[in-house]
Amino acid sequence: MFRSRLLGTALMLALASTANATSFVVTTDTVVRGLGASTDATSDVTSSFRDDKIVRAARDDAASFVASQGAIRGVKLESALAHIRQQSPALQASDAQLAQAILAI
């Protein structure tokens, strides 16, 4: 009797740890995919606009935007975002991703 309870408890613990591990893997995969998409958008913008004067002039405004989590939107940053979107209409990146890309240049 004691042995069957011990075996049952061990089985339940094994199943519980598997469920936790699975949810951890799913969460980790989701975070990594999101980071990958952000990195791809950042590298596309960085390589395309490295020598662009409008984008390079927006660096300080981009730093303020990122540091304030989007609360501070400078004129040069707005101009650079519009310029980037006009030059690359297929680019699907948020303002925050583009501001980070400008800082990476």
UniProtKB/TrEMBL annotation:
<dbReference type="InterPro" id="IPR012661">
    <property type="entry name" value="CHP02448"/>
</dbReference>
<dbReference type="Pfam" id="PF09498">
    <property type="entry name" value="DUF2388"/>
</dbReference>
<keyword id="KW-0732">Signal</keyword>
<protein>
    <submittedName>
        <fullName>DUF2388 domain-containing protein</fullName>
    </submittedName>
</protein>
<feature type="signal peptide">
    <location>
        <begin position="1"/>
        <end position="21"/>
    </location>
</feature>
